[in-house]
Amino acid sequence: MSHSEAESLHAAAPWWQPRPGRHLSIQGGQALTGIYPVSGAKNAVLALMMSSLLTPGLVTLHNVPCILDVAVLANLLQGLGVNLSWSHGSHGLSVTLCADHVHPARIDRALVTRMRASVLLLGTVLARCGEVWLPMPGGDDIGLRGIDFHIAGLRAMGARIDLDGGVVHATAPEGLHGADIRLPFPSVGATQNLLLAAVLAQGTTVIRNAAREPENIDLAQCLGQMGAVISGIGSDELTIEGGRVLGGAVHQVMPDRIELGTMACAAATTDGELLLRHGRMELLGAAAPLFGAAGVELREVADGVIARRAAGGLRGTDIVTGPYPGFATDLQSPAMALLAMAPGASAVTETMFEQRFRHVDELRKMGANISVQGRTGFIRGVPHLAGARVTATDVRAAAALVLAGLAAQGETILDGLDHLDRGYDRMEEKLGACGARLRRGDRFEG
Ligand code: UD1
C-alpha cells in the first residue's frame, strides 16, 4: 500500500494505521487457552455501512471491527459525501454515518477494486441518486460476469445499465420500481444489493431464492429500524414494501461467525480450550455438527461458545460447502487446515467459488497431504504439520494459514498480511492473550 493511500485511509478512519512488518512469525505448538472475544462481522458491517446511503438520517453502528475493509469502505463513502464520526466505548468501535448529501460521480477505482462488497454501491447510490458510475475490477475484460444477478435484478426494477470502459453506468431517471425477482442462485451480495435498492423503490419487490445468511438478516433488521417494511426476514423470500422515507438507526453489528468457526478450529488443533465470547452456535449452521464430527467439541454458554478438542481426538470427515445454513465457504480453508491434522481421510468439496483452493499448495508446504480433483480436496491427515514460509492469497486463506501455523511444529512465516488485516480484527493481540506466540517483522530467514 502506498503512503498516500495509507494517509487517505487514516483520514477516513483515524483508528486505522498500517501495521509495521510485512511478515508474521508464528511459533507453533502452544495450546490456546483463555477468552477470545469474537468481533463484529466483516460481511455484516460492510452492508450495514452501505445502508447509510439510503437516508439523510444518522446511522450509528456499534461493535464495528477494526479491519482494513472497514477503513477502505469509510474512505469510499467519504468520497461520496458521507460524513463519518468514530468513537470507542463500551460497545467497542462505533461509527455514526451521515449521508445528507451524496455525490454519485466520485467513486474511486483503486478503492473499489480492493473489495467486492463495493458492488453494493450500485444498488444504494442508484436508488438514492438515480445514477451511478461504478468502476469494475480489471476494467473492460471482466465484463458484467460475476455481478449478472445484481444487474438483472436492478434492470427488473427499472434501471438502465451499461458497461463503458470498465465502468458500470446505471441510471433510473424515473426512479426504481418494485419487481418480482428470482435469483438463479442465493447470492449473498445480490440479495443485499437488491434489498438495499428495493427499500427506496416505489412499490412492492419480492426477492425469491434470496440468500439467508445471518449477515443479510442483520442488514434487513437495521433497514427495518430505519423505517423500511420488509417481511420474510431469514427466509428465502423477502417482500419489501418500498418507497418509504427512511430515518436513522442505532444498530449493534452481529458477531463474526467466520472468526468464531476459525478460532473453534484453532482451539481444537492446538489442544487448548477457548471461550469464544459473543459467539452463538446457531450462526455456524451446518458447520457446528460437522466440526463436531471432526472432533471439535462446541458448547454454548451464557456469553459465548466454548471450543476444545473432543475426548476422542480429531477425526477425518467430509464437508461440502453451500449457502447458509450449509457449511460456509469462508470456513472451508480453516476446516482444511484442521482436517490436514485429523487422523483418517477427509474430502472437502467447494461448491460456491471455483478458485478457492489456493491455500492447498501452502498447506502442502507445511507437510499436509492434500490432492485436488476438480472441486474436491482429498485429505489424508498427518500427525503434525511443520512450520514453513507460506503466503496468504485471500482473506480466508490467511486465517487458515495462521491456524495451521499455530498448531504446527516450529516456526511458520506468513506473507500477504494485507489479506489478514482486511478481515480480522486484532487477531494477533487476541491470540497472543490466549497463549499464541506471534510477531510481525520484516527480517525473517524463513
Ligand atoms: C459473500 C461474502 C463472502 C462469501 C460469499 C459466499 C461479503 C462481503 N462477502 O460474497 O465472504 O464467501 O458471500 O457466502 O459478504 N454469482 C454470480 N453472479 C452474481 C452473483 C454471484 O454468478 O451476480 C456467483 C459467484 O460467482 C459465486 C456465487 O454466486 O460463485 C456466490 O457468490 P455470492 O453469494 O454473491 O458471494 P459474495 O456476495 O460476493
Secondary structure layout plus pairing:
Elements: H1 3-12, E1 23-27, E2 33-37, H2 42-51, E3 58-64, H3 68-79, E4 83-89, E5 92-98, H4 109-112, H5 120-129, E6 131-135, H6 148-156, E7 160-164, E8 167-171, E9 180-182, H7 188-198, E10 203-208, H8 214-225, E11 229-231, E12 237-242, E13 249-252, H9 257-269, E14 273-277, H10 287-293, E15 296-301, E16 304-309, E17 318-320, H11 332-339, E18 345-349, H12 359-365, E19 369-373, E20 376-380, E21 389-391, H13 395-407, E22 411-415, H14 417-423, H15 427-432, E23 437-441
Parallel strand pairs: 2-14, 3-13, 9-10, 17-18, 21-22
Antiparallel strand pairs: 1-22, 1-23, 3-5, 4-5, 6-8, 7-8, 10-12, 11-12, 14-16, 15-16, 18-20, 19-20
Helix pairs in contact: 1-3, 2-3, 2-8, 5-7, 6-7, 7-8, 9-13, 11-13, 13-14
Uridine-diphosphate-N-acetylglucosamine binds at residues 43, 46, 116-117, 146-150, 185, 187-190, 211, 329-330, 352-353.
